[in-house]
UniProtKB/TrEMBL annotation:
The modification 4-aspartylphosphate is found at D53. It holds the Pfam family Response_reg. Residues 126-224 bind DNA. Keywords: DNA-binding, Phosphoprotein, Transcription, Transcription regulation. It comes from the Bacteria. Residues 4-117 form the Response regulatory domain. Residues 126-224 form the OmpR/PhoB-type domain. This is DNA-binding response regulator. SUPFAM superfamilies: CheY-like (SSF52172). PROSITE patterns: OMPR_PHOB (PS51755), RESPONSE_REGULATORY (PS50110). InterPro entries: CheY-like_superfamily, OmpR/PhoB-type_DNA-bd, Sig_transdc_resp-reg_receiver, WalR-like, WH-like_DNA-bd_sf. GO terms for molecular function: DNA binding.
């Protein structure tokens, strides 16, 4: 089955260049020039992933990303201008899975799309991981806390599954970027934002985490609340 990408950008040149590269990579591409058109296309075409510019006329990219997250877990790769760190962090906090800064290499963008889709669709051995009231169904790619479903993005799920599988070991941000994101280099604040979002979802008091701890000078460590 051909995977469908929705590209949202108000610049016709950017849309055309991105479309050609993604089609050459084997994807089916839908285009949208503003936020309203993007949201209509989400309903009409149900894309497998969205490439989303944050600077859009009308409904901006952050709001589009927020509404996509309300609909489900469709992966989102943001396009942000160089230097727009606050917008980039805001997008990651809302639930975007990845980002590429403008000006960007269309080839790099196609690789990022492929990487995010691969992580979203990869199959796992049927396995349920439990840590007290936190349960991850790795095969179904779902998680619950005290019986309540957690709304995790693909990247958040992968990060949580990685931490639990390696409980008790501290990881630096660079190593997490390599092993969870698959990046050889990148903005380490991406890891910081995703850890913060995970704490908000799995910790009773995110300010005093019991599971996902900061190891000063190193990075982060997951500590199980239960003993197997």
């Amino acid at each position: 089955m051909v995977e469908r990408v929705l590209v949202v950008d108000d610049d016709t040149t950017v849309r055309d260049v991105v479309r050609r590269y993604l089609e050459h990579a084997g994807y089916e591409v839908e285009l949208a020039g503003d936020g309203e058109q993007a949201l209509r296309s989400m309903v009409a075409h149900e894309p497998d992933i969205v490439v989303l510019d944050l600077m859009l006329p009308g409904i901006d990219g952050l709001e589009v990303c927020r509404r996509i997250r309300q609909r489900g877990s469709t992966p989102v790769v943001m396009l942000t201008a160089l230097g727009e760190e606050e917008d980039r962090i805001a997008g990651l906090q809302i639930g975007a899975d990845d980002y590429v800064t403008k000006p960007f290499s269309p080839r790099e963008l196609a690789l990022r799309v492929s990487s995010v889709l691969r992580r979203a669709s990869r199959t796992y051995e049927p396995r349920v991981v439990r840590d007290g009231d936190l349960v991850l169904d790795v095969a179904a790619h779902t998680a619950t806390l005290d019986g309540v479903p957690l709304q995790l993005t693909t990247r958040e799920f992968d990060l949580l599954a990685f931490f639990i599988a390696n409980a008790g070991r501290a990881f630096g941000r660079t190593e997490l970027l390599e092993r969870v994101w698959g990046w050889q280099f990148g903005d380490q604040s991406t890891v910081t934002v995703h850890v913060r979002r995970l704490r908000e979802k799995i910790e009773k008091d995110p300010a005093k985490p019991m599971r996902l701890s900061t190891v000063w000078g190193v990075g982060y460590r997951y500590d199980r609340c239960s003993i197997d």
